[in-house]
Amino acid sequence: MRVLIVDDHELFRAGLALLLRQIFPDIELLHASTLSQGLNHALGEFLNIVFLDLDLPDGHGCDALAELKESRPSLPVIVISADGSVETIGRCIELRAMGYVPKSSSPEALHAAISAVLAGGVFLPASSIATLRRALGADEAPADTPRNPHSGGNSEISTASELGLTPREFETLAWLVRGLPSKVIALKMGLEDITVRKYISHLLAHFNLRRRTELIVMLADRGIKLGVPPVTDPAHDKSLPAVGRQRTG
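== Response regulator transcription factor ==
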């Protein structure tokens, strides 16, 4: 597994690296202290995932996330930030972050969060989930949402059958959670964009939801994990048409 850490505090990067190596002893880590350095790595390296701080010398809050996702739309990004406001968390989810980990988390909570996201799950602060639901107009968890038998701290991966999905729907869900727009998912799966959009509509109807942001919050709340994000190729992102690289929520 190849992971990029973008944070301007060397001590925090070292601590995060230590936690990552405890979970994945063979992990390969790249470090960047600025957004420009992070973008250079992202545009030239095969990576599984990026951990991104929002407070960088040359990055301005959520704009740093937007710029990274604009450059590498297929690269999953986990925000790790000292800003724990629900507004910022919600904005990052809209900008297709795969999850959000406050730096104020305890070492144990940070370890659990990292374990979850590296298993293909979504992590959001528990204190923010109810507020995010209310902001989305979905303050109650869907009653008919399939419950994952491996939720919580367990790192077991869900299957399509456990979630009541077809294999294609499950694959679409995994790419959607990792922050890919539908046109990029279509290219990944070798399908027409209209077909992927139908899969997304089926997924939202299946979980009784209306949009991706609600889906991300639900998956975080349920502890559903979809598998380790695969290595992404920067050359693939460079070849995407402009419409596939647009910043969509």
